[in-house]
Amino acid sequence: MVIDPVKWRRVGYTKRIERWMDIQKTRRIYELGSLPPFLLVFAGRVAPIEHRWNQHGLGGDNVRRSCRDLHPGPVSLLHWSGKGKPWDRLDSRRPCPLDALWAPYDLYGHAHWNTA
Fold first, then answer.
1. Residues 6+ away with beta carbon under 8 Å from 68
2. Is the pLDDT of residue 86 over 80?
3. Which stretches of the chain are assigned E, i.e. beta strand?
C-alpha cells in the first residue's frame, strides 16, 4: 500500500478505519484479517501498482508444499500474505526457501538458522 500521508491525515482515514475495527469487535462482519476495514473505507478509490512492487503469496503453507518462488524481474516488496509466516515456519524448523530473506530481520534470534 502506498499512501499520501498528508491526505491521510487531512481526510482522517485512521479514525474511519478504526471505526470499522470497533464494529468488527462487536458484530464480526468480516473474516479476512486486516484488509476489509481498508476496503470499506476506500470503497474502490484505489489504483493498481505494478506487479513488481508487491511479491505477494509468500505465506504459502510449507506443510502442503505450497512455497512460492519470486516472480521474474525486480521485486521491491516481499509480502508473506497467507497463513504461512516466516517466523512461524522458522520456529517449527520447516521454512520455505524464501523465508531466509526474512531471517536477517528476526529480532528473536533465528537469523543464524540455515533455512536452505
1. 57, 58, 60, 96, 98
2. yes
3. none
In terms of average pLDDT, the best of 37-41, 53-57, 82-86 is 37-41
**CB burial readout 97-113, b (16+ within 10 A) else e:** ebbbbbbeebeeebeee
Set of cell numbers at residue 88: 512461524
Task: For residue 101, give the C-alpha cell.
Answer: 530473506
Q: Which residue shows C-alpha cell 530473506?
A: 101
State the DSSP code for 75: -
pLDDT tier for residue 45 given thresholds of 50, 70 and 90: confident
**What is the value of pTM for the model shown?**
0.57
β-partners of residue 78 are: 55
Amino acid, res. 26: T
Q: Specify whether the CB–CB gap between 75 and 100 falls below 8 A.
A: no
Q: CA 4 → CA 7, 13, 34, 51, distances in Å?
A: 5, 11, 20, 20
Which amino acid does the sequence have at 75? V
